[in-house]
Write a structure and sequence with these properties.
Layout (H helix, E strand, L loop, with lengths): L10 E2 L28 H14 L4 H6 L1 H12 L4 E6 L7 H10 L3 E6 L15 H19 L2 E4 L11 H8 L1 H15 L3 E4 L10 H16 L20 E4 L6 H8 L4 E4 L4 E2 L4 E2 H9 L18 E7 L22 H13 L9 H12 L9 H12 L2 E7 L3 E2 L4 E10 L5 E10 L19 E8 L38 E9 L2 E8 L1 E6 L3 E6 L1 E2 L3 E5 L3 E4 L5 E9 L4 E8 L5 E2 L3 E6 L5 E9 L5 E11 L2 E3 L4 E3 L7 E3 L4 E6 L8 E5 L6 H7 L3 E4 L2 H6 L7 E4 L3 H4 L1 H5 L1 H9 L3 E4 L25 E3 L11 E2 L31 E4 L4 E2 L2 E2 L11 E6 L2 E6 L3 H4 L5 H11 L6
Parallel strand pairs: 2-3, 2-5, 3-4, 5-6, 11-18, 12-20, 22-32, 33-34, 33-35, 35-36, 36-43
Antiparallel strand pairs: 1-34, 6-10, 7-10, 8-9, 11-13, 13-15, 14-16, 16-17, 18-19, 21-23, 23-27, 24-26, 24-28, 25-27, 28-29, 28-32, 30-31, 37-39, 38-41, 40-42, 42-43
Helix pairs in contact: 1-3, 1-5, 3-11, 3-13, 4-10, 5-10, 6-8, 7-8, 11-12, 12-13
The protein binds zinc ion.
The site of zinc ion has 5 residues, from loops.
Amino acid sequence: MEEQDDHREQRKVDTSGAASRTPSPQSPTPLPVPYHNSLDPVRTSILAVLVGTCLTPAFAQRELSGSAQARLALDRLNVVGSVLMVAAHPDDENTALLAYLARGRKVRTGYLSLTRGEGGQNLIGAEQGDALGVIRTQELLAARRIDGAEQFFTRAVDFGFTKTPQETFEKWGREKILSDVVWVVRRFRPDVIILRFSGTPRDGHGQHQASAILGKEAFTAAADAKRFPEQLQWVQPWQAKRLMWNPGAFTKEQREEVEKMPNRIVVDPGDYDPVLGHSYNEIAGMSRSLHRSQGMGAAERKGSAKDFLITQAGPPATHDIFDGIDISWNRVTGGAAVGNIFAEAARTFDPGNPDRVVPLLLKAQKAMASLHQPLPDGKQKELSDAISLCSGLWLDATADKYAVTPGGGLKFEATALNRDHLAVQVKSIDIEGIASATGKNKFGEVLPFNEPKVFTLTATVPEHQPLSQPYWLVQPKQGDTYTIPNQIDVGLAENPPLFNAHFHLRIESEDVEVVRPVAYRYIERAQGELTRPVVVEPPVALQWSESAMLFPQKTDRTAKLQVKANIPKAAGEVRIQIPAGWQVSAKSEHFQLADAGEQNAISFQVTPPAGDGQGILEAGAKVGDQNVSTEMQTINYPHIPPQVLFPQATAKLVRSDVRLLPKTIGYVMGAGDEMPQALQQMGAEVMLLGADELASGNLSRFDAIVTGVRSYNVRADLRANQNRLMDYVKNGGTVVVQYNVADGPNPFGGDTTLLANIGPYPLTTGRERVTVEEAPIQFPNPASPLLHQPNEITARDFDGWIQERGLYFASKWDDHYQPLFETHDPEQKPQTGSTLYTRYGKGAYVFTALSWFRELPAGVPGAFRIFANLLSAGKTQ
Ligand SMILES: [Zn+2]
């Protein structure tokens, strides 16, 4: 990732309201999306390659892509095979192989990632969990638009790193996720299934092993009508012809190991594609680089690069992945005639006159319609898109806004532009979706040459239309799986568009139907013309200023609820529900907002119970006859289309005695976390430190300075001012350093190494982590002041942690450091490198790789108490 400058300047953390909830290092203003988030997935997928090929997303290059795009579409029409790759996470996929198959071999290609990668670390912002899963979903879709594959998921949630498939299956439910893999196989009907992993400890991550174990089982289970028979009301059993393993071979040893394996074939994604102007490996580099939240920026490697595929089941392949598999139209009864027409279209294609193949394509459409068996998946749409492409047609459907409230109205424009000389009539246009659209339009005229013809329609969204929450987040999770009530949704990458426009055309003498999703099209001044999906939003959105409220003493605190209007003249009442034992100053409040976009903060005094306690504070609003109970979170990054989530408007209330000695804390934000808000809850004033402050500011006015997660990886200014920071400790300050990624190939770009020492004495960051959040804790130095002052720490303070204990523990350290905790996963050696403490000069230094960035924002009381002691270290010797 690139260094982020936005947060460099020192600024006080804003606690006034909702806006302070996510201190992302990204700019808070909506960021633009790249052009290739366009309306038409098929057209866009090819455009994206070519736009990406030219490396600048300029408008002109879209126009230049026409013939290459048509060439690809024609070649692909005459190929009927399919391949499904299966692995566990966003980034496990072999993008070079996907690009080779989809762009080179022109087969239908899919990637089934069991999870959406919710459990990883976010390198570009503070989003975690559900929101990170949404970002990674969109990153995969953006990657697929470049490499040409399709994307699928199961209900499995990435719950974080695990060492065994057993733990994975316990958390997911083996049968449940197997049924999803079977379901995707039965729907996609691949000729070949490719596993990325072996199902053995060679794969590392337990979820990797699980993906291969389930993939192997699904190969046979999908064909067995007795397995998951409830699916057969929608799909048929499916026997893929071959199961293959595409082993990672990154080191010399692994390569030698793979080269000795029997039943091995070689493919070369380093092959150059003259139509695309790139090898598939280069395309893979572009595709992979879209995994930005994981820092997967990759080289566009040139030249031969071999990949290995090993048959695991089915007849062994000896030369080619499709050995013995007919991927031509001959496999379809009566299909040979269709194939012949497509072959002729491809052979006679003239890049200067693409319309000359349209009669052949119309003939193929007729021939396809006369076949007596179902068409190969996707071919009908591929053909109608190829016809409109070669006809020089621009067909587009837009809405007048990107968000509509239940009961609200939308205006649509459907545009047809004939840029060639074929006789094209628009016979009718239907817009189908969550409401029916109507309009008075005159149809049936032959489209004039190069003059856009705009048809207008309107629709009213139903009063009780559900909000556009991503479908897998609508209902609460069941443990580590999503709850998806409609089987037909399982596997989908994202919500389908709210509306699709169906253009019923007559081209020459044939009827052709072309479908376009309806999007909102707009101009972003810095980026140009962009689109984004249309969503249903509530009339008002609610948000508590803090997602978890800590009450460190038995005194009241003010809870602020932001009410933001999405419609003009929004008025109504908010209602508060408070858990038993807690009290609130008012149970309801009236609000009135004049304009859309306006917001108002309503304050409530919350009184905690006498003893320790936790509960959930809920908010709801009634606007007219609509009930609202959600927040509205917009995720904006330049590499994905804007995404909107509607989490429940709740805040966790936590009453626990937490004493903190420092009054002012400086925070060096790293890759992005929500720690500054959490530190404020303990009663400290928190300032974000920018480059100037680190270089020349008066650090001595801070009682403690904390470095955010991975700040040494991403902030050159922090590395540059390490001596000043250590002088600050020497003079009596306290520095607390959170985890950084160890030396070695640095996945984060920029400098490839951390500093030799991130502490006052030698200390090496390693790769050990403890992934079980309940892992037992010992205290190797029970007399350490950090365990007793100002809070008395016991093993109970490690109860209720989420996801993990910590990651990237220190591997080696000088004797000056005192380890505070010992913890380990099952079958892992005891780890004492999670938290190290030393005095230095008059001050104190603490290195701590426990997952504070998860536990504090989640309101884990023990985590607050321990972290308060770390912050207080300079004052408690
Ligand atoms: Zn993985």
